[in-house]
User: What shape does this take?
Amino acid sequence: MTDYDFDVLVIGAGPGGYVAAIRAAQLGLKTACAESRETLGGTCLNVGCIPSKAMLHASEFYSQAASGALAKMGVKTQGLSLDLDAMHDQRRDAVKQLTGGIEFLFKKNKVTWLKGQASFTGADTVTVAGQSYRAKNIVIATGSSVTPLPGVTVDQKVVVDSTGALELPAVPGHLVVIGGGVIGLELGSVWGRLGAKVTAIEFLDQILPGFDGEVRKEANKIFKKQGFTFKLSSKVTGVEVKDGKAIVTVEPAAGGAAETIEADTVLVSIGRRPNTDGLALAAAGLATNARGQIEIDHHFRTAVPGIWAIGDVVPGPMLAHKAEDEGVAVAENIAGHTGIVNHAVIPNVVYTWPEIAGVGLTEEAAKERGAVKVGKFPMLANSRAKTNHEPDGFVKVIADAQTDRVVGVWMIASVAGSMIAQAAQAMEFGATSEDIAYTCHAHPTHAEAFKEAAMAVAGKPIHI
Assistant: This one.
């Protein structure tokens, strides 16, 4: 029986799903993409990465003016005020333009948008908005959603998740962030820059789980200078909303006496979980693992022939760019080409000020595998950072002690998110620290710190 409606049907139009659909169509496959949102782009574009960066960018301008940083460079402002409605409007406009751009790309590439939530009725059949569709290949790209905190109700008014934190109608006097990870620190930075007191509560003994140890400690110091208060090795056991305020109960993670903190707004940001509810996976013969993820092989195939999965719904880091690369790769595999993603070289960025970025192994993880050589260079000694009044941070290069091959790069710098791309590309090509050290970098640029850190692996940096 070959009466398929589509060669490829992608479930979900987030960074992984819409990219998979476009690439499949480019490869000549009749393609559809099922999406229940009114706009394309998934969490990242609608209520995640993109709008949060719009708020981070705008709030940084305000902070530089309000703190006097601009005045020190001769840019004096008078009558400074915050128009939060306008700040929200520019965020919404950026999202509108980008979601509309994806819709245009769907039309350009002849991708059919099936509007509604898809659920399986068989291994090659799904229903969307009451209509049944049969596809030769089905790609699950449903992404992830906020992990709830047991016993805490998110009302999107006083107690919010990351989506609600983007829509606050006023700057809270005191914002309590539950979780010291990337999303909490970014959104905490937005509102902290605009005037909120920010307290972050983290269960572990340091912020930014999974990042290099030195980076985590240095980031902690920098955020404290910016006004963050951290309660580490602590757990939230309850949040009570009363008279428009929240009373947060906090205990030591290891057990002990509880304390309460009053907040105007509480942001629950303890992680994300795969979206599989409503998919009726059992009807397709699929099940999830203990973490709620769909297991796949190296080619993104699930246990059921013809069903593939990518992005946040499968094991691995929950990052938009990882999902995008997997979207291209899975489409190429379906089309009979060779689609590969090197999961050992996936950069991670925190878009705070300064930015924090890393790719590859942390120093701790690298040492578990064998002897390493480490080079570091402070941004304080970088000429461009100096002229830009951006002294915080450093670049760290971790190389195998025997081969000199770079196995990890970590950095804190104002433009670390862009700088990390060079490190990822170097690692993709198997570069040694010597390769990087002998590559001419333009002067004066922040990226020279990467060159100097690579030189420091051999103990020979120039400017320190």
Q: What stands out?
A: Residues 84-108 form the longest helix (25 residues). The chain is about 30% helix and 25% strand. The CA atoms of residues 250 and 356 lie 28 Å apart. The radius of gyration is 23 Å.
